[in-house]
Amino acid sequence: MIFIFTVKVIERMRTSREGHNTKQLYLAMYSSVFGGITTDTAAMVIPMDDHMVHRGHGIFDTAAIMDGYLYELDQHLDRFLGSATMAKIQIPFDRESIRRILIHTVSVSKCREGSLRYWLSAGPGDFQLSSSGCHQATLYAIVIKDQSPPDHRGIRVVTSSIPIKPPQFAVMKSVNYLPNALSKMEAEENDAYAAIWLDGDGFVAEGPNMNVAFVTKEKDFLMPCFDKILSGCTAKRVVVLAENLVKEGKLRGIRVENVSVEDAKRADEMMLIGSGVLVRSVVQWDEEVIGNGKHFSAAIETIFIYALLPLVPFALVSYACSKSDILTFEHEMVFS
After folding, report:
1. Are residues 145 and 11 in the same domain?
2. Contact 63, 72 (CB under 8 A)
3. Which residue in 173, 184, 228, 265 is the catalytic one?
4. Most buried of 86, 108, 120, 214, CB within 10 angstroms?
5. Phi, psi (5° rounding) for residue 91?
6. Is there a contact between 274 and 208 (Cβ–Cβ < 8 Å)?
7. 171 and 287, same domain (yes or no)
8. Residues 111, 160: one domain?
9. Statement to judge: residues 178 and 235 lie in one domain
10. Within the chain, where are the H helices?
């Protein structure tokens, strides 16, 4: 058994990351445990006795960073706080303070294209099942820059054999993503991009971390109901944009309702929608080709990709971070 001093631990954590080949860079992290922002990946850690780690008692959300703006931050923050209430987590800050912390974390990171992921946990305290022994709920946030090249090609999906989460848990964005991870792995094992869940009644539900939508042969925009699945912020925005296509006569109407697998696979177009993919065209589901098997139409692409961005409220990030805000210890840390 080897006892390692703290300095050596940090040194080894840095070394272990140097040899790790990843497509993602972690540019800044906020933690309410130490009350500040760090830019050292070796310090981007959370306590083992945090109930989010060993009990899954935590929630999270994500906002895309686009050209120095946080895309739909307020919509995602509302859902974040709603999930915290459903998970019975006492929120340690008011909404405006959380918003300010999130924006400041992006500012420190200097990231202009990437994503901001943030968590609210029941907090550290012990290894019991109940969170009654936790000191205080904790807020974490991390800025991620994905170095993968953009890919807009049409994708293949399969039907998931992994059971979908019950509605009580599916409608909140908790950290319990084991079913989601297994569903994604199942897709990859079958040379597909994602696996599509069906609900308990056999209707189309959602993907592992994105919503699904269709354009029928009658040119109706069709999306499953949100009562048993996560209410996607980007999906809701797409519904608003679809109204413009209805006005222009490019779509006949919009329907949010139960969608059978048969109707879904007969659609002219199918898409995955989420803050990570925005809108991604699906050209094949299981063995059935969707529509003509090609990338979705130019009209849909124009509205749902290029028009998706400038028409929504953004949170502007100021990157003018004063050097007086930064204190240098073994790593760079900014205190809020």
Report:
1. yes
2. yes
3. 173
4. 120
5. -75, 125
6. no
7. yes
8. no
9. yes
10. 6-18, 51-54, 73-86, 95-109, 167-170, 178-189, 233-247, 261-265, 298-301
Give the number of other CB atoms < 10 A from CB of residue 277. Answer: 18
pLDDT of 267 over the 70 cut: yes
Q: Is 305 inside any structural domain?
A: no
- Residue 190, pLDDT above cutoff 50: yes
Instruction: Assess whether 135 and 169 both reside in one domain.
Output: no
Q: How many whole angstroms separate alpha carbon 68 and alpha carbon 315?
A: 9
Q: Is residue 310 part of a domain?
A: no
Query: 134 and 227 in one domain?
Result: no
Give the global pTM: 0.88
pLDDT at residue 327, rounded to an integer: 34
Domains held by the chain: number = 2
- Across the beta sheet with 113-121, the strand order is 314-316, 69-71, 58-66, 113-121, 138-146, 24-31, 36-38, 332-335, 326-328
Q: Both 140 and 161 in a single domain?
A: no
> What's the angle, vertex CA 178, arms to CA 115 and CA 222, rounded to 5?
65
Helix (H, G, I), strand (E, B) or coil at 27: strand
Residue 115 predicted with pLDDT over 80? yes
Q: Are 297 and 269 in contact (CB under 8 A)?
A: yes
Q: Compute the distance between CA of residue 150 and CA of residue 130 in angstroms, rounded to an integer.
A: 43
Q: Is 173 a catalytic residue?
A: yes
Give the structural domain span for 13.
6-150+315-335
